[in-house]
Amino acid sequence: MTQEPIVCIIDDDEAIRESLRLLLYAGGLTSFVYESADNFLEEEEHPTFDCMLLDMRMPGTDGLELFRILNRKHLPYPVIFITGHGDIPLAVSAIKLGAYDFLTKPFQDGELLEKVRSAITYYQSSREHLLELQELQARVDSCTPRERDVMRLLAKGLPNKGIAESLGISPRTVEIHRANVMDKMTADSLPALVRMITTLESEKN
Amino acid sequence: MTNSNNNKGTVVLIEPDVSVRDALTVLLEGENWRVNSLDDCDDLPAALAEQEVVAVISESSLPNCTPQEILERCSRYSLPVIFTGHDLPVQGAVDLIRQGATDFLDKPFPQSRLLDLLDGL
Questions:
Q1: Contacts with A, B 42-101, CB within 8 Å
Q2: What residues of B are in contact with residue A79 (Cβ under 8 Å)?
Q3: Among A100, A176, B6, B60, who pairs with B85 as Cys (CB 3.0-4.6 Å)?
Q4: ipTM value of the model?
C-alpha cells in the first residue's frame, strides 16, 4: 500500500515557495513548506517525505549543507535542487553527492511536475523494495542454523539426497528441515524459495 | 621543483582553441604535469594508449566527436575525464556527470580549481 505522497518545499523566497506549492497542488500533490533549512531542522518531527524541493542558495544552512545533514541522518529522500541559471558548479556537486535531480529557475510547470513525480515513483519503489528485503531477511533469521544450511543447498539446486550427503544427515531429516524452511519462508514452491534467496544475495553483493 | 623527476604523470588535453590550449599547457607543466595536447579527438585513441596517462581534460563541445564518445573511450582505460565548456546549460553539465565525467568546469574557471581537481584524483 502506498500512502499519498508528500512533497517538502524549502525555499527562502516566499513567492517561489507559494508558486511551487500551488503548482504541485494543481498536479494533485500535497506539500509542506519551510522558509529555510534551519526552520526545517528546528522542527522535531516531520512526515516521511517522498520528494524534497530544496533551494540551493539560502541564508543560514544552505541547500547542499542540509542535503549532507539528511544523508548523515540516513534520510535518503530524493532531493530535487532548485538552482539559478549560472549555478553549474553547485548543480554538479549536488549530483555528485547523490541528488536526484535539479531544476533551474525559472522553471516550466510541466518540467516541475514531471521531475517531482519521477522522484516520488523512484522513492516509493525503492522503499517498497527495502521493506521487502527486510521482511525476507527476518524470515531467514527465523530459521535454525540447520534449516539455513538446507536452504542454501536447496537454492544451489541440490536434491534431498545430495543435501543429506553433503550435511551428513538422513534424507528423511532433510525432508523435515525442507518442509520447515518452506513454511517459515512462506514459499509455496521451490522456485519461489530460490527467487527469495537470489534477491537477498544479489542485494548483499 | 622544475622537471621530469617530480613528474606527476601525463594529462591528455583536448582543446580546439589554441590560446586556451597553450595557457592550460603552461599552467599544467608548471605544476609538473606532462601534457599531451590535442586540438580535436582524432588522435585520442593513440594518446590514451600511451603510458602514464592519468587523466583527460576535454572541451565538451568538439566538432568531430561527442563527450559521450570521449567518456566511452576513456572508460576502457578507467581514466577520469574532466570536461570544460562555455555556455553549456546546467542540464548538459549534470548529464555529463551522470554519464561518468569526474567534473565539469565552466569557462572561464579559476586555475586553482583545475589544479585541485587533478591533485585530488
A1: 88-91, 93-94, 97-98
A2: none
A3: B60
A4: 0.77
Q: Is A131 left (phi over 0), alpha (psi -120 to 50) or beta?
A: alpha
Angle at B89 between CA B82 and CA A83, to 5 degrees: 100
Instruction: Write out pLDDT tens, residues A151-205.
Output: 999 988 888 999 999 999 999 999 999 999 999 999 988 888 988 988 888 777 6
pTM: 0.70
In 3D space, the residue among A99, A110, A193 whose CA is nearest the CA of residue A153 turns out to be: A193
In terms of Cα–Cα distance, which of B63, B95, B58, B91 is closest to B74?
Answer: B58
User: With 60 as the cut, is the pLDDT of residue A1 above it?
Assistant: no
CB A49 within 8 Å of CB A7: yes
Across B27-49, average pLDDT: 95
Q: Is the pLDDT confidence value at B2 over 60?
A: no
N residues, chain A: 205
**Mean predicted confidence (pLDDT) in A26-31:** 94
C-alpha cell recorded at residue B116: 585541485
How close A91 comes to chain B (CA, Å)? 7
Q: Is the pLDDT of residue B86 over 80?
A: yes
Q: In the sheet that B34-38 helps form, which strands lie side by side, from edge to edge?
A: B34-38, B10-14, B53-59, B81-85, B103-106
Q: What is the pLDDT of residue B1?
A: 44
By Cβ distance, the residue of A83, A86, A95 closest to B97 is A95
Q: How many helices (H) and strands (E) does chain A have?
A: 9, 5
**B90 and A95: CB-CB below 8 Å?**
no
pLDDT at B5 over 80: no
Diameter of chain A measured on Cα atoms: 74
